Amino acid sequence: MKRDAEDLLMPVEKAGLLFRNPFIIASGPASKTVEQIQQAEQAGWGGLSIKLTFDPEPYINPAPRYRWLAEEGIHIFSLETRLNLQQGLRLVEAGRKGTKEIVILANITYVGEKGLSGWAEMAKQFEEAGAHAIELNFCCPNMSFNLDAIGETQRSTPSTGASLGVSEPVVFAITKAVKESVHLPVFAKLTPEGGNIGEVAQSAIDAGADGVCTTANRLGVPALNIYHPQRSIYRLQEGTSLGCISGPWLKPLALKDVLQMRKTIGPDPVIIGTGGVHTFREAVEMALVGADLIGVCTAVMLKGFGVLSEMVKGIKKYLRETGRNSFSEIRDGALPYFKPVTELILIPGQAEVREEKCVGCGRCVVIAHCEALEMAGEKAVVRKEKCLGCSTCVDVCPKGAIAMVSL
Ligand SMILES: Cc1cc2nc3c(=O)[nH]c(=O)nc-3n(C[C@H](O)[C@H](O)[C@H](O)COP(=O)(O)O)c2cc1C
Fold first, then answer.
1. How far apart are CA 241 and CA 243, in angstroms?
2. CA of 231 to the centre of ligand 1 (A)
């Protein structure tokens, strides 16, 4: 084995599958072709979930148009290409033949007339094609869910992705039908759009799923041109729709989803934590709130398959620094500290201005909810009896001239 590949080894065994490291290329544009699967294998990724395969043929399937809004940390799109059944099956078959170690998940949606047995048959076909695991797509917000959200109440097209994932009984029924039809591990990739992703995750586990995954994109409004709202922010695209958002912006929400799922489903089922992972830090955060494996999509789209190397190196360094021996030991490390808001402990204290650092800019005295800060000549001062202890002034001060002190 080449030295580089050895450096990327951090084996994790989950749901009976051996991953070279906990990093998986999440389903998306970087997992559509055999060449990409081979590149992912060469770059050392532990796993890869193929681009959504849709059976029968996707009813919305245009060429892709994406925007990466670097300043906002937002990746957004509405137009995207999916695979049909034959493309998906061929991809898995060829992907397996062309690789040795990468774990291949088949990300699937069935929308035909056979209902549950259609899902079961589709999963079976992917098992025969060589998939290591099935990932049920209960998360895509960009097809029927988009149409519902934008007010197409009379739609005649079938429910897909997030429209299924909002319903516990639907997730339960489909997961059960698929799990009973294959011998492979089955993961349910869920959406938080239904409200309580923990409960939906529990219904997938009750139905026999080996694990759950979150978060896919969240549906939002792309940045608007305020003078010309008719103009699309996309290049080579006319018109605007609700858009699928991913990237760094998504991370706090994705962490919440993972935490909520882990708290609800308990320690045993596998969680693939996805959403906003760009460096090893977010991967560690994901593990700290309960993730076993880490999905990455946008960072791979933008920076290529090689992003893995820095992530694994970062994790290895973190393990050394914190005296841990394996990635699994990070898991749940932050969970005990998450308490109901009613149990948080308030430490009495107040703001103090470090006079020598204050330049008298006045940013702290305009804070609308605060009556404690005022100017005395060129310097800000705190009227201690009025200080709520909120600490907004510390954050808005550009000179680090304010500190909170406990009483
Ligand atoms: C362009 C694009 C296409 C995607 N296609 C799929 C898909 O086919 N199936 C799926 O489950 N998730 C899909 N996703 C969601 C990603 O797998 C991932 O869950 C999401 O982007 C959040 O992770 P990230 O912030 O690392 O991108 C797609 C994401 C993007 C950006």
1. 6
2. 25
